[in-house]
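Can you make up a polypeptide sequence alongside its tokenized fold?
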Amino acid sequence: MYMKTIIRLLLWLPLLVSCGKGTPAQKPAVRVATEVASVTSDAKGRTYVGVVEEREATAVSFTSMGVIRRVYVGEGQAVSRGQLLAELDPSTSGNMLDAAQASTSQAQDMVAQMQSTYNQAKDAYDRMKILHDNGSLPEIKWIEAETRLRQAETALQSAKSGVRSASASERIARKSVADTRLYAPVSGVVGRMFLGAGETAMPSRPVANILDVSSVKVKVSVPEAEMPAIRPDMASTVTVAAAGVRIQGGHIEKGVQADALTHTYDVRINVQNPQRKLMPGMVADVQFDGGSSTLEGHRLLVPVRCVQRRADGSLFVWTIDNGSIAHRTPVTLGTTLGNRVEILSGIVEGQRFIVEGYQKVSEGSRVTF
């Protein structure tokens, strides 16, 4: 009986061990976006990715300090020159105007009184002058008449000066009241609101900026080696997918200062925008037509963003083998063309490489696409 029990245990032992080990769990595949490397011939033009910019931006602000009572426009709203944008609480300015108007009224009343006094003194002076000229008026009386006239004239001039001063204060108060209203200095689209109702406005603090988008500029970065081929009158085609617009570009403005890191220059293409479909910040594809390309013959081009740099400075691209496994593949770069770069070695035609999602993979990762 004892021997039979031992034999049964020996027969069951391999099965128990295999059940205890189990099957190791396989990591889920990482989803990525890929492209297949292909050799293409250079086109007559060059294509770049750019961004739409406004033709001009105008910051608007109040000329006085105060609390904003109401804002009448919002971001993205079209406004016309002279349109009311916002207003401050007019309480303080209104009180100043009331006080200034009262002061002006009092000064005008004083002028009226002094004018009456002067008229009386002048009338007395004229009558006594006749007597004085005839020698029938004592000298002391003539001196008194002259003195009263000079005093009345001085008082009248002082009262008139008071009116001018009060009127100047009233004009300042009226301007202060007018300054509580902010009007659009130009026509355009409200790009951004910096302040809202209840916030304190200051002369140096913009409330909003107004963008002139009747025409726009599309800015692209051009490698320094390709700048000589860009001409101000070169034909170009601008495509903005977000707005469904494909239009011919106008005059080209070439930047004169290169980016220290990328060695590229800013180039801006003027584009008409009468229907205001193109808005600042939209991504645009720009193709320059004509001229000889800086790349000749057939080249293998990949997106610049696919090229990664290791700690030792070497460059690589994530490639995928037939088993859907990711690998770091060292590459040698050639010339940059727009947002793509030439691969001189490392990748061959027909090889699949990762264009999006490479941040989530590591050497030997299984991927799906």
